[in-house]
Amino acid sequence: MSRRAAYIDAGIGETRGVVLLDGFPERLVIERDGADPMDQPGAKAVARIRKIEKAFSAAFVELPGGADAMLPIKPDGPQLHQGQAVAVELRSQARRGKSALVRLLEPAEGPPRLLEAAPGLADRLAHWAKAQPLTGAQAREAADAAEEAVLAVVHALPGGGTISIEPTRALVAIDIDLGDRPGTEAKRAARAANLAALAAASRLLRLKALGGIIIFDLIGRGHDGAALTAAARAAFTPDNPGVAIGPISKFGTLEMIVPRQRRPVAEDLLDEAGFPTPLTGALRLARLLEREGRAAPGARLLGRCDSATAAAFAAVQGGLTEKLGARFALEAQRDWPAGRIEASSR
Fold first, then answer.
1. In terms of pTM, does the model score above 0.90?
2. Euclidean distance between the first and final Cα of the chain, in Å?
3. Which CATH number fits domain 44-116: 2.40.300.10, 3.30.460.80, 3.40.50.1010, 2.40.50.140?
4. What pLDDT, in 10s, does the model give residues 49-61?
5. With 0-12 CB in 10 A as exposed, 13-18 as middle and 19+ as buried, what is 34?
6. Which runs of E-coded beta strand occur in 246-326?
7. Is 2 helix (H, G, I), strand (E, B) or coil?
8. Whose CA is closest to 94, among 152, 145, 38, 142?
9. Reduced DSSP (H G I as helix, E B as strand, rest coil) percent helix, strand, coil of the chain, to 5
10. Are 100 and 93 in contact (CB under 8 A)?
């Protein structure tokens, strides 16, 4: 039977929530200080209809704070018009190149404003894990490991072999590699790897917050379609409602759809070029200095980073001073690549 555990790492400038499934990271939620409260699934607000696109059966609405979101219009729903105020609930966060998705609650009055915040981080973790979140050093370790797994492309499979998970604008491609997986009979080894890949991929997609069209490049030929479909259905049960699984194609691929709710975690951590954002680098440097400070009580600490990260560090410097005191200094290295950080004591 699968077992889940939850962790909350309350750090400087951000709080990270983690769910582990049988000891492996399954979900990572990052909440940074000063984030828009409307940018969480479940938040409710009054929005203003900015434009109606009848050809797409949708309206574009202005949320509190000025961000746009798409509101699907149902044929049997209430008549809407431009400029109208409506109460909506955020269903899916905005991501790069895509607006947030909201659902209509009822007509409303007044300017755009938040009506009800989304469930808190502890509540969401409890919903997923059914367990009281743990804190402290083990939570920091779990969050760091989850972040590392989010950004990895290649992941090991239990029993041998790997899967590679690579998102594109259109879909998420998952390649299964048998590697050095043991087995005297090739077809049996391929079947075992494919089944292991479905289970691992379901967990990793939840961790990375990836959804939409998912395509698995299966190993081998002559697949047992019924067995693989049943395994996929069981593995992706936590993502329902909305999971749809297609038949295995003549090319040996399995296609499915997994609903999206959250923005891909990598978009919160990395810029469009794939480098850590300045704020991500600053938060990581704060954690690194904090760890160095615990290892060397009373010592002077030195943090080094690229110039953009140094500029973003101002947002977390006060919180770090409260924890460590004024015993650290920061040096910006103009020739360092984005995201490179170091901390030392002296």
1. yes
2. 49
3. 2.40.50.140
4. 999 998 889 999 9
5. exposed
6. 253-258, 301-306
7. coil
8. 38
9. 30, 35, 35
10. yes
